[in-house]
Amino acid sequence: MPAMTPSEFVRALYKIALGREADSDGLSHWIQTMESSGDPSIVLRGILDSQEFRLRCEGPEFQADLAKDDEIQYPERMAEVPNVSAEEVHRSLPAPPIGFARDSLFAGIQWHQGWDIFEGVRLPGRNSVEELCGRLRLPADLTGKRILDVGAWHGAFSFECERRGASEVVAFSLEDPELTGFHRIKTLLNSKVEYVVGSVYNLQDYKLGQFDVILFLGVLYHLRYPLLAIDQLLGACQGELLIETHIIHELNGLPIWRFYPGAELNNDPSNWFGPNIAAVITAFQTAGFDISLVEAWGDRAALRGVPSNLLGAFSGTYDGWSHELRSRLGLERPKCR
How far is it, in rounded angstroms, from Cα 211 to Cα 228? Predict the structure, then answer.
């Protein structure tokens, strides 16, 4: 797709952000600003900081449009993945072991994930593992699959994949598994899930191999360097990448990342960015994934990707030259099995 001219860029921004055609004075001013600076982000910031944009955001019509955004289907990007019904997932849960003490399992842990660990025993987190697996269309049968759960935390998604028949599951996260409850659950389930303490920023250094399914759930918006993390995921993926993330409903026609320098999102300083759906899709596309939206609800979205081996976005860039130099000097890491 050819690059937009300054006039086309400004006109599109007026239409998307302000909901109207550009007036002649405004068009002339912003075209001159863009041409003199060479930086379209100056124009973007100027319009988003304008009183007109702020007033529009506060108006009833704009708020109604935001509500409608929750129902957008993005048909050209929607992954045609069959729903997995509850009946397809074998939910015959094991009984609690003899001597099981519910209080000893739950005590001292701030649980985020809700998951049926035993018959009549559920992890008390507010984020339902079963519901999200349904939204992601996670297959009911993972027999023979290698699974990587990035940002595993308590490990409930890892254990769910093992329950669905995965032959090997690696829970990969920064947290101490003793403090998150992972080891408690693993011991109770007599699970074979392996926990690796590590950062997605240098995932390839751990030489974990390639995976049939990678779970990247609730992680993207916590990263200060999201594109670096996505690049690392590509090298570990030989099958599917399943993504769940926070999203914003702003300027859906343009890839936008809202920056949270403090605790603006949910009063949580660990949240760095709020991307819109277009931003998530283009970020993974430029890293070499064929990515598609599966479902969006509220301020969350589920997406699926597979390696496309198309890295045209790297051509002629600092990153592309860096990859080429590493290859010439023999510095590339050994290929994953």
Answer: 19
